[in-house]
Design a protein that fits this description.
7% strand; two-stranded antiparallel sheet; 5 helices; 2 strands; mainly alpha
């Protein structure tokens, strides 16, 4: 959790995304304990209820689960769940939008594919 909170979106969403990022990067592994709401609150200097909201969001999505009296843990399959969630969002937020914009500009599918290959070569 070496990321910094920004004003761009709600803090609890940023907390949940940071945990997701740590799961994707294998910083937090399946069945591993995640930082407590109090630890997150202290680290980011936020209200514990805000940190809890971010953690509870991931629990509601099945990526974390609670061990009573111990804390929250990364669920089995959480990494794949995060990937699926992010791929679905990528499709909705980027691919569909890209195709609509390309069509409005008269860019053919082949031109679009060529642009993607060019950008990939430059990356």
């Amino acid at each position: 959790m070496n990321e910094i909170l920004t004003q761009e979106k709600s803090i609890y969403l940023q907390i949940s995304e940071m945990i997701e990022n740590d799961i994707l990067r294998d910083i937090l592994l399946e069945e591993e304990k995640v930082p407590s709401t109090n630890e997150l609150a202290k680290f980011f200097k936020i209200n514990p209820a805000t940190a809890a909201k971010g953690i509870n969001l991931l629990a509601a999505e099945g990526m974390l689960y609670k061990k009573r009296g111990i804390g929250m843990f990364v669920a089995q399959g959480a990494k794949e769940a995060v990937k699926k969630k992010r791929r679905d969002a990528f499709y909705e937020n980027y691919i569909k939008t890209l195709l609509v914009e390309a069509a409005s500009l008269g860019i053919s599918r082949q031109e679009l594919a060529d642009m993607i290959q060019k950008a990939d070569a430059e990356a």
